[in-house]
Amino acid sequence: MKLRRRWLTALVLTVAALLTWQPPAVAQDDAALDYYRQAKINWRQAEGQSLTIGLNKHPFTESLLPLIPEFRKLTGINVEYLILPEAEYFTKLVADLSQQRGEFSVIMTGPMRNWQYVPPDWILPLDDFLNNAKLTDKAWYKQDDFYPALLSANRWDGTIGGGVGKGPLYSIPVLEESYILAYRKDLFDQYNIKVPTNLAELAAAAREIKAKAGIPGIVARGTPSVASMGTGFISGLKSYTDGQWSEFDDKLNARFHDPRSVQYTDAWINMIRESGPPNWANIQWYDAMEMFTAGQAGMIIDADFFAASYEDPKKSKVAGKVGYALAPAGPGGKTYAGLWTWALGINKATKNKDAAWLFIEWATAPRTLLNATLNYRNYNPSRASVTDDAKVKETMGAWGDGSYLRTVQKNLETAKVAWTPQPERARMGDIWARALHEIYFQRMSAADALKKASAEVDKVLKEADIKQ
Amino acid sequence: MTMSRRRRRVLLPYALMAPALVLLVGMIYPFGLGVYYSLTNYWLQYPKRFRFIWFDNYINLVGEPLFLRALEFTIGFTVVAVAVQVGLGLAVALFLHARIPGRAVLRALMLMPLMIPPVITALMWKIMMASTNAGILNYMLSFLGIDPINWFGSTQGAVVSVLIIDTWGNLPFVSLILLGALQALPTEPYEAAVVDGAGPAAMLRYITLPLLAPFIVLAVTFRTMDSLRIFDVIYATTQGGPNDATTNLQIMAYQFSFQWYQMGKGMAQVIVLLLLVVLVSYLLLRLWNRAAERTVY
Questions:
Q1: How far does Cα A51 stand from its chain's mean position?
Q2: ipTM of this predicted structure
Q3: What total number of domains does chain A contain?
Q4: Do the Cβ atoms of A423 and B45 come within 8 Å?
Q5: A114 with A348: CB under 8 angstroms?
Q6: pTM for the whole thing?
Q7: Of A149, A406, B151, B258, whose CB is crowded by the most CB atoms within 10 A?
Q8: Interval A105-153: pLDDT, tens
Q9: Closest chain A residue to B156 measured between Cα atoms?
Q10: Is A56 domain-assigned?
């Protein structure tokens, strides 16, 4: 009996030892932590506190998760997180913010989303944290290293209809996303097709690819949601009108039925119907990205960093066969692509505000973002130092024989947030996307459907007291 | 201090009722809250503007174009889905009731879809129904010389797809009810019919169906209630699109509540749906009562 108990004890101890044993990576870890400890702040000032991070299922999230243990070790702050698909994430987030429960401390947000969270006073301006020497070592954090256009996209002074780039900073960008054309260079070469520079050429190229290669000439997002409007479509429309058109006139009347908008929409939908995939109306961003990655489409105008998927030799059928160019331009010869940054912000209702800031400071520090890009494919960098890193440059520079990096940099000279600030932006986008379905399924003409969309948006803005 | 026996006897019924009361309150409170919200302009985005607005949400529904389309689809889908599912379910039940080899295995296999959560069913089918050649369903149809079907990308395709998926998931339920009923039917009428020289078709028409009537009505009732409220299959595949072709009241209420955060409007839509379900169920249950009374074993 006694003997057996001793055996049992030995067994339990062995199992426990096996479970707690960790490979001897301690020395390396310490080297990583040393970098953070160079900052002249006390990383352990919020030790023992807990944070819950609200995360959208996204490549950035994938790159952040493996790094979180490092933050725990550095600060002694306990981190939990909840990851949800985009639509569910934003729903859950608004539920939490509106009840002011502070369930999430740090949230994944971005310029257009902030317009929704700032008016009801749900998220905190971050300038005070950045300027607090106890919390931020400015020299170490290197705020100037962020691309100025991306930081300024996350500033807003609260003016309905304007004020982007002014006022408080509400979130810190963790990546850059703008919209460019990716095309199958191999097919374009084979069939001697010219890379399109305007909408008519785009439609012609799509037609030709479909006829000659037997695959959809172009793929685009098509579900009836704001998510379908904000990338290729709106970038094309802005460019088509030389950056002149926007959703509202100066009295906040919706202008979807503006004649130039009607022309563009008509041409776009005709192109999709003629040369796009038959299930366009049910295509979400990842379907579009996957289709192009699987070699099932000739062109796509969408997030530039999807290139990380197209060029991933492990899963892509088109790696090395893709060319990159600016989205088709308007009569003035310039493109005006939209811009978005996923960014981290702080829920005003959270109890542990300092701990939340420490998390953001760590997550957006030069080395963390470099790590995320280098080892976990978080593209495109929001910090210049990450883009300039030799290895990152080598990877991104190789895509499209150098055309990727060239295009992204050229694109960013004119790219900016495409939408007009107001809290009902997402709802408005949903209404607009539904109008595209009315046109695509030929229930209404472009002019009528867009006129109806304008009227509906005006109605919602009045109902929400945003406009008189 | 012990309680007198009399006092304990007085309290006993209340103690026994307590769990039921807790349950009742647990059910009534959220329901009451829902009704209350439906009478307000509750909009998550604008908490400061919260106001009681009586029946405005209900009145405004009439002028909401999406509501009329959603109502039409809710009812249309229910009628077709119930007819298809009960019709096919009856056929399957009759087939599995017949003396065929491998009957036990087939009966067990038939139950499989019931064990899979509807969302998983929907996603499984969504993958199979991919519009390009990549979809296994279109690939298989190509052997029959059928061109690829645009399952979720066209309005009719999406409606048919949702119908197929919902039917696949719920057919076993109908078959199970009807098979159980078939097995419980008395044998005497059939013996008498054989003596009178009736064929199988006549027996089905004049004996089986009339005897099954209450069970058919029961299956119709259950399936109607479920079809009026269908959400998971639609949300997982089409989210109500394309062109709102598969938007029913439930999906519409979800969009208003959780996509656009207008809780007051969303609740009003759900309550309209609830009234519809209650009304239809009431009518069907009356029908069931009558059918059951008429059937004398």
A1: 23
A2: 0.89
A3: 2
A4: yes
A5: no
A6: 0.90
A7: B151
A8: 999 999 999 999 999 999 999 999 999 999 999 999 999 999 999 999 9
A9: A441
A10: yes
